[in-house]
Design goal:
By secondary structure, the protein is α+β, with helices and mostly antiparallel strands. It contains two helices and six strands, in the order E-E-E-H-E-E-H-E. The chain has helices at about 50-60, 85-95; strands at about 5-10, 10-15, 40-45, 65-70, 75-80, 105. The strands form two sheets. It has a four-stranded antiparallel sheet. A two-stranded antiparallel ribbon has the order 1-2. A hairpin with a 2-residue loop joins strand 4 and strand 5 (about 75-80).
């Protein structure tokens, strides 16, 4: 088992490398916010089912969570999408105050 370190906001976390199969997530249109060029990213997952679990968790917590595309082999999950950078920064500040790590993707 080869471990991969992923650095997110100066924090090191172990990436999930138990699967070598990378597929595009099956995204249902109702789970994706189609508007907003600024996305507050909650996490990046090598395994699609882990990304789906985070979308469900964040949705249950009241966020407009959705898949936000891929970065290399990783599935990105967003807290939400926003039209303005100001809105995205407000949400980023809120989620960080909750002890969660996040970043903005434009």
């Amino acid at each position: 088992d080869v471990g991969i370190d992923v650095i997110i906001e100066k924090q090191v976390a172990k990436a999930d490398t138990t699967s070598t199969k990378f597929t595009k997530p099956e995204v249902k249109p109702e789970s994706v916010s189609s508007s907003g060029k600024y996305k507050v990213i909650a996490g990046a997952f090598a395994i699609e089912s882990n990304a789906q679990k985070m979308v469900a968790e964040l949705t249950a917590a009241g966020y407009q969570a959705h898949f936000a595309g891929k970065r290399g082999p990783l599935h990105l999950v967003a807290f939400g999408s926003f039209d303005s950078e100001t809105e995205a920064k407000q949400v980023l500040s809120k989620v960080r105050s909750e002890g969660r790590s996040a970043w903005i993707k434009k």
